[in-house]
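Bench notes, afternoon.
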Amino acid sequence: MLNIQNLSAGYGGPLILHKVNINVKEGEIVTIIGPNGAGKSTILKSIFGLTDIKEGSIEYFDEELIGVKTGEIIKRGICYVPQGRSIFPSLTVEENLQMGAFIRSDKAVIKKDMAYVYEKFPKLYERRHQKTKTMSGGEQQMVAIGRALMLQPKLLLLDEPSIGLAPKIVCEVFEKCLDIRKGGTAILMVEQNANIALSYSDRGYVLELGQNRIEGSGKQLLKNKQVGELYLGK
């Protein structure tokens, strides 16, 4: 589905990523972990066309994404939920979701997708007329993810989905990720909470100083002594 090979990228200055390799198969949840400054978020931004790429390839269903504009990347079925949720605080839940379907015009399909989002996030239906600035951090994160789902993505990019959330809400967000995967959307996420992220992931990558360090299944990385000492607090 997604195959990143030898990716070197940055933001116009020194390179952040150095020949990074990542792949995601259909129906997978894949997590990238590592210390601050490792380049984790830069990978997601590179996929979404938001960095200066010097070398490598990003193939999505065997088609090269490098050089493709972000608007076209969205149309191809990739959506990105940035760190910090980035919702429209003065708009209601439903208005935020409608904004997620901004490139579409089929009202009947949009209505169907709205129902799909409300099925995945019943709390959002209950509060669909509430302004999002009055909601909790966990509810706002659900709005941000739900808004991305309005574009029927095949691949969802999540940047630190648990940041700033209470432990109980973190578990709820990750349970929703499993539910989204059941609906046919693969997920590539960056997450500081490595323990819980890997426990919900099919596979994971450990990044350090912009380079691949370790990779394996979520279970393998949770049991890996080196990963445990460096990133899991063991």
